[in-house]
Design a protein that fits this description.
The structure holds two protein chains of two kinds.
Chain A lengths: L3 E2 L5 E4 L4 E7 L7 E6 L6 E6 L3 E5 L2 E6 L4 E6 L8 E9 L3 E4 L3 E6 L1
Parallel strand pairs in A: 2-11
Antiparallel strand pairs in A: 1-3, 3-8, 4-5, 4-9, 6-7, 7-8, 9-10, 9-11
Chain B lengths: L3 E4 L2 E4 L5 E7 L6 E7 L6 E7 L5 E2 L8 E7 L2 E6 L8 E9 L3 E4 L3 E5 L1
Parallel strand pairs in B: 2-11
Antiparallel strand pairs in B: 1-3, 3-8, 4-5, 4-9, 5-6, 7-8, 9-10, 9-11
Classes of the chains: A mainly beta, B mainly beta.
């Protein structure tokens, strides 16, 4: 059973701080990883994807991938109250299907 | 960016009726679309994979005769919940796949069966 695991949280950070969200995956064959943000009652919104080991930056977001440790993370710099949401980590498997983690609730306090 | 629409955004129906949900990719062609279901405070559960021009592939435990999927064109997939019951009430979300590997999600359809 291929799994993606996330700490459910909630993770609380003050406004302006760095939020660090983590994810591990069980299938060593997974090559592509995605971070989605989901506000309550809404569908997931793609934040970033990462294929290669190392860091990938996009604005305030940095995704990190370590395939040897089977570990993916998302850093959010200068966190804002509007970043408060559930963050879903997903790994792509055969057939372009996504295996989702349960999600981490992030709360940014002003 | 890639835009995916769903219609309707919400629907309330009586038990025993059928409900059709449409998923459209508006600015790109999607050979593959996926259908998910999400219950409150739970993560997304993949129901089926829909490939244009072929039969859908259902995940284990999903009744293919109850959840009918049609992917007649590169921009449209439909999910029909047949003989809906209250336990089918959920948030149904489609996604459209675009190479090299990204899924873009529709806004979702909230189904309530009375």
């Amino acid at each position: 059973q291929k799994e993606v695991e996330q700490n459910s949280g909630p993770l609380s950070v003050p406004e302006g701080a760095i939020a660090s969200l983590n994810c591990t995956y069980s299938d060593r064959g997974s090559q592509s990883f995605f971070w989605y943000r989901q506000y309550s009652g809404k569908s997931p919104e793609l934040i970033m994807f990462i294929y290669s080991n190392g860091d990938k930056e996009d604005g305030r977001f940095t995704a990190q991938l370590n395939k040897a440790s089977q570990y993916v993370s998302l850093l959010i710099r200068d966190s804002q109250p509007s970043d408060s949401a559930t963050y879903l980590c997903a790994a792509m498997e055969y057939g372009n299907k996504l295996v989702f983690g349960a999600g981490t609730i992030l709360r940014v306090k002003s | 960016g890639a835009v995916v629409s769903q219609h309707p955004s919400w629907v309330i129906c009586k038990s025993g009726t059928s409900v059709k949900i449409e998923c459209r990719s508006l600015d790109f062609q999607a050979t593959t679309m996926f259908w998910y279901r999400q219950f409150p405070k739970q993560s997304l559960m993949l129901m089926a994979t829909s490939n244009e021009g072929s039969k859908a592939t259902y995940e284990q435990g999903v009744e293919k005769d109850k959840f009918l999927i049609n992917h007649a064109s590169l921009t449209l997939s439909t999910l029909t919940v047949t003989s809906a019951h209250p336990e089918d009430s959920s948030f149904y979300i489609c996604s459209a796949y675009t190479p090299p590997g990204t899924q873009y999600f529709g806004p979702g359809t909230r189904l309530t069966v009375l």
